[in-house]
Amino acid sequence: MHEDREVAKWIELSERYLMPTYRRYPLLLVRGRGTRVWDDKGREFLDFGAGIAVCNLGHCHPKVAKAIQDQAITLLHVSNLYHILPQIQLAQLLVEHTFAHKVFFCNSGAEANEAAIKLARLYARRFMGKERFEIITMEGSFHGRTMMTMSATGQEKVRRGFEPLPQGFTHVPFGDIKALKRAINPKTCGVMLEVVQGEGGVVVPPNGYIQEVEGLCKEKGLLFMLDEVQTGMGRLGTLLGHERFGVTPHIATLAKGLGGGVAIGALLATEDVAKAFEPGTHASTFGGNPLACAAGKAVMEVMTQPGFLDDVKEKGEYFLGRLKALASYKGCIKDARGVGLMLALELNRPAAPVIADLMEKGFLTIPSGERVVRFLPPLIVEREEIDLLLDALNEVL
Ligand SMILES: Cc1ncc(COP(=O)(O)O)c(C=O)c1O
What we know:
alpha/beta
């Protein structure tokens, strides 16, 4: 355990040596277990952020930790020039439990989306005609911080200062099917979206919208591409978020929750679309490495246990019900919304002080824009822990 003085020293060193890309809370988290994390002073926090939807099975899940330990003393890295056992096993699990026939592994959400865009362009060039390369994405979306995924992202604040950005994206309002229809042109090859926008503020589309987008893609012969980096891996109470909407994409991307805390991303596609990739068209040195895939395999084995996802769905409904009840008598709450365990309160005032007060009371939550407090607990969260958060929210608000 550290004294206050020592904590201040670490924070000072953090600011001295690290590039200033993050506005960090003055908190040094050193240990985690299940839904809880502890700071260096031994203070305990209930984690309703899960590393921004990464630790979906909680911190240091025993099965994930064991898989990593075993793999660490067996084989850490070999090149994709060879077949990799945990990679094959994880791909098989993903194919058996999703719409996909083929998987490509990488290391992050942005990389998975980058791969998805490359696959869409190759597919379009080869099978839809040379002039098709444009992808329609949504205003308010977030797809990553590489040049290409930033360009795909429908948030000006993310893109500002990096121009000129790569071409090939048109943004339309999320939830507006007419605007999407109008935006389709002879250059369009696909539509890419999140089924619930995460970084945009947990924005749930109007009823029927996702199905209409799928229908429109089918009708116009376009690729239906889903960024499931945040909504995937059980977050919405189904393994992939789109299952809740009864749709089937051609392409979907995963990252965040897939490795249980270890960096991994995946591009999933149908057989027909995946055939556009061939040796030499895409690669990653670390993508699909034995360590990350062993972790991913353990995550998949836990999440596909009977009842696991139904439990997430039920807890999500309970949590949302309690947030809505709170909203009914707290005038400062504009909206309580979300799907599964991806939930949020939109306030009529800045969210930052609320997040700070909750932290003071031992709860970690995540901001989303100026006025939204986001709740992304580990999927193993207990109802009693949700109640504790609601009591704290009641006091703080
Ligand atoms: C929907 C979505 N796509 C892509 C990303 C980028 O993922 P990464 O930070 O792993 O590159 C994020 C990250 O928040 C995300 O929420």
